[in-house]
């Protein structure tokens, strides 16, 4: 479908596209293959759509008369679900969206809402592109806030008895945040490339819209980086708890070993059974050894208590 959007939204056929009017369009890849020659889109761009539609990347490439771009959308709420993907072509008077995968109809909804919105604000190719790209990520801030709440809730549930579950949750979240950060970094590159305005596709007076878009994506990337740092802090706090517990356990065994080491020495000494050991024949030798052992244990326990080993 192709719409002329100079003053109102009006469907037109591809053959009726004229240079003096502004258009926005959406179609499938198969439809584009049948009519790409009307737009002057090269076969190489079509092949690139086919080759890159299965890859998890976002790119933008300037051609002689148009921009070609590819976006694999990520749902910040669940980054591992199947992704919507689209290609787009930007001419001086046409913004064409090519739907590669849109099972949830999100791209179609964004296309309709952004084209309606730009009619209310004044039409230019820059605004058409800006409002469409902005609508694609309009919910991301809410999703990032939900991720932050999830991390904070996970921190509050830090339990030494469920250490493995906690660690696995941290790793999963870290993977999600890393994927999100890469996603936003790629979108920043798209925004910066659009600001270059190759071949003067966009009006210079409207270039601030792409600056706004790029700064918005950079804020998203910064927020994701902040969440990664928060996640690292949670992991470090959890590891500190585990290390403290391990240190206390090792300290306990050290104290026990130290207390009973003299007793081991005494038992080994008198266990040698030399014939000339007078204590072995003394009537109170056995009681004396027991008493000495008790005194040693009590003295060491008292000393460790004083030194606050336990």
TrEMBL record:
| Chief location category | membrane
Q: Which InterPro entries match?
A: CorA_cytoplasmic_dom, CorA_TM1_TM2, MgTranspt_CorA/ZnTranspt_ZntB
User: Which Gene Ontology molecular-function terms are recorded?
Assistant: cobalt ion binding; cobalt ion transmembrane transporter activity; magnesium ion binding; magnesium ion transmembrane transporter activity
GO cellular component: a single term: plasma membrane
Q: Which residues form a coiled coil?
A: 137-164
Q: How does it sit in the membrane?
A: Multi-pass membrane protein
Q: Transmembrane stretches, by residue range?
A: 252-272, 284-304
Would the keyword Lyase be found if you checked this record's keyword annotation?
no
Keyword Calcium included in the entry's annotation = no
At the top level, the lineage of the source is Bacteria
Q: Function, please?
A: Mediates influx of magnesium ions. Alternates between open and closed states. Activated by low cytoplasmic Mg(2+) levels. Inactive when cytoplasmic Mg(2+) levels are high.
| Name the record gives this protein | Uncharacterized protein
Which species is this UniProt entry from?
A: Coprobacillus cateniformis
Organism ancestry = Bacteria, Bacillati, Bacillota, Erysipelotrichia, Erysipelotrichales
């Amino acid at each position: 479908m192709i719409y002329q959007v100079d003053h109102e939204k009006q469907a037109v056929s591809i053959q009726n596209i004229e240079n003096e009017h502004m258009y926005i369009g959406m179609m499938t890849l198969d439809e584009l293959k049948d009519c790409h020659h009307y737009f002057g889109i090269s076969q190489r761009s079509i092949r690139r759509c086919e080759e890159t539609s299965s890859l998890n990347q976002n790119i933008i490439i300037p051609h002689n008369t148009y921009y070609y771009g590819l976006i694999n959308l990520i749902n910040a709420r669940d980054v591992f679900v199947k992704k919507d993907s689209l290609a787009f072509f930007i001419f001086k008077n046409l913004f064409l969206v090519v739907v590669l995968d849109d099972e949830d109809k999100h791209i179609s909804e964004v296309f309709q809402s952004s084209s309606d919105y730009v009619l209310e604000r004044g039409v230019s190719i820059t605004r058409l592109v800006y409002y469409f790209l902005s609508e694609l990520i309009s919910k991301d801030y809410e999703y990032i806030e939900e991720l932050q709440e999830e991390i904070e809730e996970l921190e509050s549930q830090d339990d030494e008895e469920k250490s493995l579950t906690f660690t696995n949750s941290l790793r999963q979240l870290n993977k999600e945040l890393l994927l999100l950060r890469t996603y936003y970094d790629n979108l920043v590159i798209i925004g910066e490339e659009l600001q270059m305005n190759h071949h003067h596709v966009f009006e210079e007076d409207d270039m601030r819209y792409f600056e706004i878009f790029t700064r918005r994506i950079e804020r998203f990337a910064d927020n994701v980086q902040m969440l990664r740092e928060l996640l690292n802090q949670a992991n470090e706090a959890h590891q500190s708890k585990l290390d403290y517990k391990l240190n206390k356990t090792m300290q306990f065994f050290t104290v026990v070993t130290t207390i009973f080491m003299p007793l081991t020495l005494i038992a080994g000494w008198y266990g040698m059974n030399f014939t000339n050991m007078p204590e072995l024949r003394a009537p109170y030798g056995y009681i004396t050894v027991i008493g000495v052992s008790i005194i040693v244990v009590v003295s060491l326990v008292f000393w460790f208590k004083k030194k606050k080993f336990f």
